[in-house]
Amino acid sequence: MIRRLAGLFATLSLLVVMVAGGLALYYRPAIPPAPLPPLTGQIDRIVIEKSARLMTVFRKGQPLRSYAIALGFAPSGDKTAQGDGKTPEGVFRIDRRNPNSRYHLSLGLDYPRAADRARAAAAGVSPGGDIFIHGQPNGLGQRVTLTHDWTAGCIAVSNSQIAELWAVTPIGTEVEIRP
Q1: Position 155 pLDDT exceeds 90
Q2: Do residues 161 and 31 touch, judged by C-beta distance below 8 A?
């Protein structure tokens, strides 16, 4: 009987230690990562991986920084029509910059391309357009970042991240958007 109670006590003690340790890990306040130094110079390529919700910027083939992104409200698959909520896939270029958009800073992509227009025409729909990499909606505040897929097909980052990108992304930068 005493052995049985000792075994039960040891098991309960181990369980208490495991639960307490797990709770300590769960409730431990997060230590914010050290801030990264600001990007300098110009980038020459952006790769967006839709399934990973990740955008990485490059210079001369070297990755410099990655950002978590939000996409169109129906992100799976390639954009085929205006209003479908999809983010287009393929290789594009930054072809315009809009400091006065409805979102905090916008870098425009050269979508739709000729093939996109032809595919949409064959389906009897508009291909859509005005696809941008941009920040958060104006009026939302500098500290709020929407994290779910909420755009109409654009790629969204935080306001501080788009400000950083804005400073280093010239017209003509290649943007590859992967599924």
Answers
A1: yes
A2: no
Amino acid at 136: Q
Paired tokens of 103: 């979102």
Residue 27 corresponds to which tokens in the numbers above?
A: 């409730």
Place of tokens 């270029």: 93
- Please state the pTM of the whole predicted model: 0.78
Contact (CB, 8 A) for 81 and 111: no
User: From CA 131, how far away is CA 113, in angstroms rounded?
Assistant: 12
pLDDT, tens digit (0-9, with 9 covering 90-100), for 43-62: 999 999 999 999 999 999 99
Could you tell me the two tokens for 19? 């639960």
Provide the H-helix boundaries in the chain.
2-27, 114-123, 159-168
Rounded Cα distance, 158 and 164, in Å: 10
Cα dist. 38→41, 47, 64, 65, 167 in Å? 10, 19, 10, 10, 10
d(CA 117, CA 119): 6
Phi/psi of residue 68, nearest 5 degrees: -75, 140
Rg over CA atoms, the chain: 23
